[in-house]
Write a structure and sequence with these properties.
Layout (H helix, E strand, L loop, with lengths): L2 H18 L11 H9 L6 H12 L4 H22 L9 E2 L2 E2 L1 H5 L1 H20 L6 H27 L7 H11 L1 H13 L6 H28 L2 H4 L5 H4 L5 H5 L1 H19 L7 H11 L4
Antiparallel strand pairs: 1-2
Helix pairs in contact: 1-2, 1-3, 2-6, 3-4, 3-9, 4-6, 4-7, 4-9, 7-8, 7-9, 9-10, 10-14, 14-15
């Protein structure tokens, strides 16, 4: 079994076990846990936690020590998807080839599920006995900053619908909306190594910046070129909503060249790490060739 698949199975198991361990108030059978499970356990690429596991493993960190960070980053990601799909945001009815959370449980419960997942992300790290207090503070600070930047990026995204924007603004928006959590995924795995050098941290930060922007441009391309069945959501959603995208500004061919170039820069960057970067390089190449 390939390494990414091992990590995918691990994060799926960890997420399910964690959500099953939450006991609702016996005085009232809360629906909240069911709503959270519906979205979290629906599937997905799990790329963010896989990235966290991969980076941590480069520095020989015990994976049991990585589980809470891997779960936390995925919970933040899923919360953002639940809220993004709401009628007041992107108004998407399909996610992971099933009805969006608000279509099944209603908008109010979907909002609360997102709120709950965000809170649980911080709780799961703060209560992890495998991680010392100083490291927890660094991890929680990084996660909070990244979650805010993601929300900031989404705010920019909503403000530019049906407007003409330049590539500079689009880059800045996506570095926040998409790049911030991808950067966080990388840096969570790195920070778990208390002895990591400043040089390695700088390299990984630069790697994640290139990779994060490349990932978003690739997403924009796939939104145009890939069917709804493969994407797990509606095709051409950006165009339908009159949202600026890289293909709409650069054209499809130039967008492909752009994201391939960014991935290559990311791969070149990690060649200078003090550890064997092959697992991270292989994951990045796999990502560059993804179809959804």
């Amino acid at each position: 079994m390939e390494i990414p698949e091992i990590y995918r199975e691990r994060i799926n198991s960890c997420l399910e076990n964690y959500l099953n361990s939450i006991s609702p108030d016996n005085s009232y059978q809360s629906e909240l846990n069911d709503v959270m499970k519906y979205s979290v356990l629906a599937g997905g690429k799990r790329f963010r936690p896989i990235l966290t596991y991969t980076v941590a493993n480069l520095f020989d960190i015990d994976l049991q020590k990585v589980d809470s960070c891997a779960c936390a980053i995925e919970l933040i990601h899923i919360y953002s998807l639940i809220h993004d799909d709401l009628p007041s945001m992107d108004d998407d009815d399909i996610r992971h080839n099933q009805p969006s959370s608000h279509k099944v449980y209603g908008e109010a419960q979907a909002i609360l599920a997102g709120d709950g997942l965000q809170a649980l992300a911080f709780q799961i790290i703060s209560s992890d006995d495998e991680i010392n207090s100083d490291t927890k503070v660094k991890l929680l600070n990084l996660l909070s900053v990244s979650a805010f930047e993601m929300a900031e990026g989404q705010s920019i995204d909503l403000s530019i619908v049906s407007k003409d924007v330049d590539i500079g603004l689009l880059n800045n928006m996506h570095k926040k909306k998409t790049g911030s959590l991808l950067n966080c995924s990388v840096m969570l795995g790195a920070i778990l190594n208390p002895n990591i050098s400043k040089k390695d941290l700088t390299i990984l930060d630069s790697f994640s910046s290139y990779m994060g922007l490349g990932y978003q441009i690739q997403d924009d391309v796939l939104d145009v070129t890939t069917s709804s069945e493969v994407l797990g959501k509606r095709q051409n959603s950006d165009s339908v909503k009159n949202k600026p995208s890289y293909p709409s500004i650069l054209g499809l061919d130039e967008s492909v060249k752009k994201y391939e170039s960014l991935y290559q820069k990311a791969i070149d960057e990690i060649s200078n790490l003090s550890v064997n970067e092959k697992p991270l390089r292989d994951l990045t190449i796999k990502l560059m060739k993804r179809s959804f």
